[in-house]
TrEMBL record:
This is Class II histone deacetylase. Belongs to the histone deacetylase family. CDD domains: HDAC_classII_1. Residues 48-324 form the Histone deacetylase domain. InterPro entries: HDACs, His_deacetylse_dom, His_deacetylse_dom_sf, Ureohydrolase_dom_sf. It comes from the Bacteria.
Length: 369
């Protein structure tokens, strides 16, 4: 079986209007040359194009998907939220929350993004593909049930997981979020449930600035099933691999999921405009390799990555290509032109040791001595 790759050009047509970085233009915020919001189809399309021109697409099973239905969406989002979103979308667009703007047709595009995640997960669960990468937008991991946030308009991964559970019955799912920003939406949706382990690796106090704390472990039935791993700015490659070794892998092995889903933001790269980490394409390659090994040992290899953030037009394509190469087992001849520079930019060993000591202290609290 091949790796599934899920994409629809219509998702790239989602627009938040004219912005400078992510700030609406106006007042003293001068329009830039292209007026493009930092979360644009332009960057994700470059990722898809590199997969194609590298020759890797020939080894993938490429699909689109129908949009999520109203019934699919209502398993996660209340009718009042969906009604308001649809009404504003039909009326020309608007804003569903904090930094959650959209243009006409935004509702339909967001439902399509959720539908792509649904099909990727369904195809892996049914054995049609061995694993999958879902390249969709708008992203979803900040979206709360009743409020958009952080460029996210629908909770793509939870919508897909609840559709999967409706089709296949109860399932234990681990969501590993390596977007550089805290996956607060996914956390909120599953905070009181024990069937979904939510793990977020993120730059500490980046976005949202008041969430993603170590002590936020879930509540009620979900106590102990939420794991936040805040990393110090500039931690780079070793910080992510240490976090995987010390916290993520032990948590996965203790939980024993039926499926692992990655919230695959690529904004931890060393040149991303919305974060201050120093990861590079080999960071994402190694994290993918680690999760593939755990999926192979724990859940029959069932692993799906669903794209979230990533705002560097040069870094995102190479980081994404590294992930898909690893998932598919096909290495292209593409060389990341940033890799040598970012390897040279890594923090000094004493900083890396300090970060690891923090992770080990957290692991003692989570797992005991």
């Amino acid at each position: 079986m091949a790796t599934g790759f899920y994409y629809d050009e219509r998702c790239m047509w989602h627009s938040q209007g004219e912005h400078a970085l992510y700030l609406p233009v106006g007042g003293f915020v001068e329009p830039p040359a292209n007026g493009t919001h930092v979360e644009s189809g332009f960057i994700k399309r470059r990722f898809r194009n590199l997969v194609e021109v590298s020759g890797l697409m020939a080894h993938l099973d490429l699909h689109s998907a129908p949009p999520a239905t109203r019934a699919d969406l209502e398993r996660v989002h209340p009718a009042s939220y969906l009604d308001r979103f649809k009404m504003m979308s039909d009326a020309g667009g608007g804003d569903m929350g904090e930094d959650a703007r959209f243009s006409p047709g935004g509702y339909e595009i967001a439902a399509l993004a959720a539908g792509l995640a649904m099909r990727g997960i369904a195809d892996v669960m049914s054995g049609k593909v061995s694993n999958a990468y879902v390249l969709a937008r708008p992203p979803g991991h900040h979206c709360l049930p009743d409020r958009g946030m952080g460029f996210c308009l629908m909770a793509n991964i939870p919508v897909a997981l609840e559709a999967m559970r409706a089709a296949y019955g109860p399932a234990r799912v681990a969501v590993v979020d390596w977007d550089v920003h805290h996956g607060n939406g996914t956390e909120a949706i599953y905070y009181d449930r024990d069937d979904t382990l939510t793990i977020s690796l993120h730059q500490e106090a980046c976005y949202p600035i008041d969430s993603g704390r170590v002590d936020d472990r879930g509540k009620g039935a979900g106590a102990g099933f939420n794991l936040n791993v805040p990393l110090l700015p500039g931690g780079g490659h070793r910080a992510y691999l240490d976090a995987m070794e010390v916290l993520v892998v032990p948590a996965l092995r203790a939980f024993r999921p039926d499926l692992i889903v990655v919230a695959s933001g690529l904004d931890a790269s060393g040149v991303d405009p919305l974060a201050r980490m120093l990861a590079h394409s080999d960071t994402f390659r190694e994290m993918t390799r680690i999760l593939m090994a755990e999926a192979g040992a724990l859940c029959g290899g069932r692993l799906v990555a669903v794209h979230e953030g990533g705002y560097s037009e040069i870094a995102v394509p190479f980081c994404g290509l590294a992930i898909v190469e690893e998932l598919s087992g096909h290495r292209t001849g593409v060389e990341d032109p940033l890799l040598a520079t970012l390897i040279g930019n890594q923090p000094a060993p004493d900083m890396a040791d300090f970060q690891r000591a923090r992770l080990e202290a957290q692991a003692r609290k989570v797992f005991g001595d």
